[in-house]
Amino acid sequence: MPSVHTSPATVLEEATFTQSSGPKFDTLTFDPGKLPAFSAVAYLSGDVLRLNDKRCTVVQTHVECQLGDVPAGKSKVLYASGVKAARVEYGLGDGKTHVVALK
Q1: d(CA 41, CA 19)
Q2: How far apart (Å, rounded) are the C-alpha atoms in residues 100 and 9?
Q3: Which of 77, 88, 75, 79 is nearest to 31 (CA)?
Q4: Does pLDDT of 69 surpass 90?
Q5: Could you give the CA distance from residue 51 to residue 78 in angstroms, rounded to a whole number?
Q6: pLDDT value at position 13?
Q7: What are the b/e assignments for 57-83, b being 16+ CB within 10 Å?
Q8: Of 81, 72, 74, 68, residue with least CA distance to 28
Q9: Residue 27: left (phi > 0), alpha (psi -120 to 50), or beta?
């Protein structure tokens, strides 16, 4: 995954990126919390990473998924297996890139 120098998500923003296990695929859910997120991109990596989503492309050693704008109180979901590390980078309209890691 590319390295970035950004500010992490703060408690005020309440953004979350969570993973829940399923029988074949895990569910990855990005929720921006009380503020809308703009131009959200998920970065996923793993040993045997599998997903089938037209928003995602392989870039070198990781997968990038274009989640786009996410309204406050809504979420975006990805279904994948083999995910070892992941994060979402997004904007809040403040000119900064914010990051929330998979929990």
Answers
A1: 16
A2: 6
A3: 75
A4: yes
A5: 8
A6: 58
A7: eeeeebbbbebeebeeeebbebebeeb
A8: 81
A9: beta
How far the first Cα of the chain sits from its last, in Å, is 17
Three-point CA angle 75, 80, 86, nearest 5°: 70
Kindly report the number of other CB atoms within 10 A of residue 101's CB atom.
Answer: 13
Please name the residue that has the structure tokens 């037209």.
54
pTM, to two decimals: 0.85
Number of C-beta neighbours around residue 53 at 10 A: 14
Measured distance CA(4)–CA(23) in Å, rounded = 34
Question: Which is it for strands 7-8 and 97-101: parallel, antiparallel or unpaired?
Answer: parallel
